[in-house]
Amino acid sequence: MTKRRTRKDKEKAKHQFTISWKPTSSKIESEAKKITFEPNVKRQFNNENKNSNRSDVNLKGTYLSEKSYDLASIKKDMLRSLILATIIFASEIVLYFVWNAI
Questions:
Q1: Backbone angles phi, psi at 55, to 5 degrees
Q2: Residue 36 contacts by C-beta under 8 Å, 6 or more apart in sequence?
Q3: Is residue 45 a part of any domain in this protein?
Q4: Is 79 part of any domain?
Q5: Is the sign of the CA dihedral 72, 77, 81, 83 positive or negative?
Q6: Per the UniProt record, which residue ranges are transmembrane (predicted)?
Q7: In a domain, 7, yes or no
């Protein structure tokens, strides 16, 4: 059987904490302020600040043109689908009348 942990064992940590409630030096305080408590989740981007050569204005223009392309593409696909559905429906009506006329 495994050894059971007592209350005394549970209250004492086996490892050193990175941030303590009572920091002993100013170095630890500065490190404690830098640490963020956001979880590192799979597929989540790190919150590191990356310097980019582009300005925000150029990026906004890129996003707007990308959106307009997506909207135009969606409208075009919807119109194509509507025309195809109309042709199929019209051909079914024609076939229905042809079969009933005979």
A1: -90, 165
A2: 47
A3: no
A4: yes
A5: positive
A6: 82-99
A7: no
